[in-house]
Amino acid sequence: MTDKTALVTGANSGMGLATSAGLVQKGYRVLMACRSRERGEEALARIGQSGGPGSAELVLCDLADLASIRRFADDVHGRISSLDVLINNAGVVSPKRQETKDGFELALGVNHLGHFLATNLLLDLIKPAEGRIVVVASGAYKAGRIHFEDPHLRDGYNVVKSYGQSKLANILFARELALRLYADGVAVNSLHPGAVLTQLGVNRGTGFGQGVYRALGRMPSFQTPEEGASTAVYLADSPEVEGISREYFYRSRPNRLDRKAEDDETAARLWAWSEHEVGL
Ligand SMILES: NC(=O)c1ccc[n+]([C@@H]2O[C@H](COP(=O)([O-])OP(=O)(O)OC[C@H]3O[C@@H](n4cnc5c(N)ncnc54)[C@H](OP(=O)(O)O)[C@@H]3O)[C@@H](O)[C@H]2O)c1
Question: Domain with 133 in it: what CATH number?
């Protein structure tokens, strides 16, 4: 049992739901950040049915809308006075170029900029000396670069460029944040969950992508959401991770990064650019 509190973004589906359930099983109070009240309540009911010594509650947050993120941060501050674990898990991938409410390219806007603002607005709640921040990135970062000349990909959009950029941004953000929080003793690590069968890439409005989801489900090489969530739960809760920060994990072990993801100059430049974009 624990009296710890965790917040998980994208908690209604896939690995976010499995991570939330895993932490409730370990006795955490879990704040499940979801953009849809309906899907969030369904997920909450599923977690309630599975039991567990902890508890779960729904907090609404649309990471594609800066005003919603600010309301969410206020809501969280009204509910809790400290946070042990923040898991930035929500993510999107889109075959077509789309924009967030604030005109950001969707993947960069949700996967990176939305989490960048949300994390910064919640930082005062993270417990010094023991707090942990977990960033769910992806091995797809290898296909990305930060397009500082056209970050919102107005020219020559494609899905690999978009998702790869957003996931590289996740890792650069985690490494820069780890440096900034080093003196406070807050650990920040990122991870690649592996290939996991989830609703990632399935359009929630039209259902486009469900066929691919079903076809992939017949391939044994895909992990279940619970298997995929295991590294996030490990980074959130395992005593083995104490004192470890600024690492990138795969299968609950530190993994080597390509040089571009360890480029501190790019990470600092991305941080400054992101602050400007979200108005911090
Ligand atoms: N699946 C894989 O093989 C794989 C591999 C590497 C990395 N990842 C990463 O793993 C993470 C979890 O993805 P998943 O595979 O579990 O996919 P998923 O089942 O599609 O879950 C994604 C979650 O993100 C939420 N989300 C999307 N847009 C949002 C927004 N604007 N505001 C707030 N929440 C939003 C979704 O909410 P809705 O249900 O309301 O859309 C959902 O809860 C992502 O960061 C993804 O990049 C996945």
Answer: 3.40.50.720
CA of 156 to the centre of ligand 1 (A): 24
Ligand 1 atom at minimum distance from 93 CA? 47
Please state the φ and ψ torsions of residue 18, each to the nearest 5 degrees.
-65, -40
| Domain of residue 249, residue span | 5-278
> Which residues sit opposite 30 in a β-bridge?
6, 56
142 in ligand 1 pocket by Cβ < 6 Å? no
Domain total in the chain = 1
State if residue 64 touches ligand 1 by the CB under 6 angstroms criterion.
yes
pTM of the model: 0.96
Judge whether 107 and 26 are in contact, CB under 8 Å. no
DSSP string for 28-41:
-EEEEEES-HHHHH
Is 213 among the residues known to form the active site?
no
The 10s digit of each residue's pLDDT in 45-104 is: 999 887 789 999 999 999 999 999 999 999 999 999 999 999 999 999 999 999 999 999
